[in-house]
């Protein structure tokens, strides 16, 4: 599935924007998948830039609850991210331009570390 491939590439996206290969891959997705992937990329970029103790390499928007889309906004109250081999809870709200590529606004809150013994329950991995 193309969306899964993007999560692996997202960690190489520079904080200031998307490179052409990422944009081409995002363009192959449905608008909903594109918006979710773009917001996941933005979450990793913001967290790594603003909280120096984290180096996120994966974001999953739906681990503890389904994301909610309304127009060009995506709310992910049950998201998670992985940093240095550990998983952490995450909430974010992201608004993109109509094409789903440009992030217009982004707010997030990092939550608690998820105990390793609960990873299987939520399909988390190393």
Describe the structure.
The protein is α+β, with helices and mostly antiparallel strands and 126 residues long. The protein contains three helices and five strands. Strands 1, 2, 3, 4 and 5 form a five-stranded antiparallel sheet that branches. Residues 1-16 have low confidence and may be disordered.
Q: Which descriptors apply to this entry?
A:
3 helices; alpha+beta; 5 strands; disordered N terminus; 126 residues; five-stranded antiparallel sheet; 33% strand
Specify the biggest β-sheet: 5 strands, antiparallel
DSSP summary: helix tally: 3
Strand content: 25-35%
Spatial shape:
globular
- What average pLDDT do the residues reach? 88
Helical percent range?
A: 25-40%
In the predicted model, the low-confidence regions spanning at least 5 consecutive residues are 1-16
SSE ordering: HHHEEEEE
- Radius of gyration using CA atoms only: 14 Å
State the total count of DSSP E strands. 5
Give the N-to-C terminal Cα separation. Answer: 20 Å
